Amino acid sequence: MLKKPFTKFDNSVRHITATIAHVQLILGLWLYFISPIVAYFLYNFKDAVHERQIRFFGMEHVTMMLTGIILITIGSVKAKRKITDIEKFKTMAIWFTIALLVILSSIPWSFSPLVSRPLFRSF
User: Fold this and answer.
1) What is residue 44's predicted lDDT score, i.e. its pLDDT?
2) How far apart are CA 26 and CA 53, in angstroms?
3) How far is CA 18 from CA 22, 23, 56, in A?
4) CA dihedral 15, 69, 105, 60 (to 10 degrees)
5) pTM of the prediction?
6) Fewer CB in 10 Å around end: N or C, the chain?
7) Cα separation, 78 vs 44, whole angstroms
């Protein structure tokens, strides 16, 4: 196993990753609450929860993205508190990879059979 020291750069990557995730959280929540799809979902919950696309954007997407950001935050804090360099790298790798998988799984990709959005929209 490679025994690389945990440098200031590595710590900066950890910190910047968590910071970008938190900025994205703020932007995402702002977009969530001004979205007409979410407004429909919240005001017509009983009917909207049975519509796959509406439920995805009103409930599933935001829940999974929030979970991903929580995982990044936990991983960052745990890595910061580890004593040895190898523990710091291992902790970051595990938590950030799980968070990345959660985030990637809840993006409405154009090829997704569950919910798909076009890559580019003409307005």
Assistant:
1) 93
2) 23
3) 6, 9, 25
4) -170
5) 0.87
6) C
7) 40
Residue 38, token pair as written in the block: 């979410």
Of 66, 61, 8, 17, which is closest to residue 35 (Cα–Cα)?
Answer: 61
Nearest of 61, 49, 51, 58 to residue 106 by alpha carbon: 61
- Closest by alpha carbon to 80, among 1, 3, 18? 18
For the residues of 20-73, what is the DSSP string, one character each? Answer: HHHHHHHHHHHHHHH-HHHHHHHHTHHHHTTSHHHHIIIIIHHHHHHHHHHHHH
Query: What is the C-alpha to C-alpha distance for residues 52 and 83, in angstroms, rounded to an integer?
Result: 46
Ordered by start, the domain boundaries in the chain are 10-105
Q: What is the tens place of the pLDDT at every residue in 27-69?
A: 999 999 999 999 999 999 999 999 888 999 899 999 999 999 9
Amino acid 2: pLDDT? 65
End-to-end CA distance of the chain: 52
Buried b (16+ CB within 10 A) or exposed e, 100-123: eebbeebeeeeeeeebeeeeeeee
Mean confidence (pLDDT) of the chain: 91
